[in-house]
Write a structure and sequence with these properties.
Elements: E1 2-6, E2 9-14, E3 20-22, E4 25-27, H1 37-42, E5 45-51, E6 61-62, E7 67-71, E8 74-78, E9 83-84, E10 90-91, H2 94-98, E11 111-113, H3 116-133, H4 136-145, H5 151-173, H6 177-183, E12 187-188, E13 194-195
Parallel strand pairs: 5-8
Antiparallel strand pairs: 1-2, 1-5, 3-4, 6-9, 7-8, 10-11, 12-13
Helix pairs in contact: 3-5
Length: about 210
Amino acid sequence: MFALVESGSITKFFSGNQGITIGDNQYSKQIFYLWSSAEREAIGIYEVEMDTSKRKDEQWYINTDITYTFGSGKVTGSYGDATAKAHADTLWTSQDKTDGKIPEGKDVGDVAVEGLKTVLIRNIKKQAAAELSNTDWYIVRKADAGTAVPSSITTHRAAVRTKAASMETSITNASDTPALETLYTYTKQEDGSVTRPLGELPRLES
């Protein structure tokens, strides 16, 4: 992205994929690809330099809008301080009821906005259900025909449920959003493996 700077202020932005007009002068899009930075800057066009040092993972944080500034001969786009998403549910309050904000069918104490913990635990349940569904047919066959379920399948299904419960407990016990992020952050171990504190659900080996 490029910006037009006039009298020390940013007045317009360009994507660089089409020609532009500045005052009475028209320029083809080639100025963004064939001209040097010095040549573009001579007519007030600067390539935007992004500062992403404050930008955080949007799974866990709400980033601010980008602020564009001109100074020291360059245009910079930067983020402000990110805000952590709520890790706990937000509930409807008595004040919300007084203000008429609570929708029909809801009341004080009901969930207004789900927090990260609720969303993440629901995802774990879905993942566990999906893994168990791969071997559900053994259970159906047992009910229909009386064929015994192999011990390896029984062991695997129990392991999935146990691990899912453990993962849900870890999520529930996380003190804040950064702690949740840590649970899901993969790091390389001394043995070369890449793991995360939350761990993984067992997979049935084929």
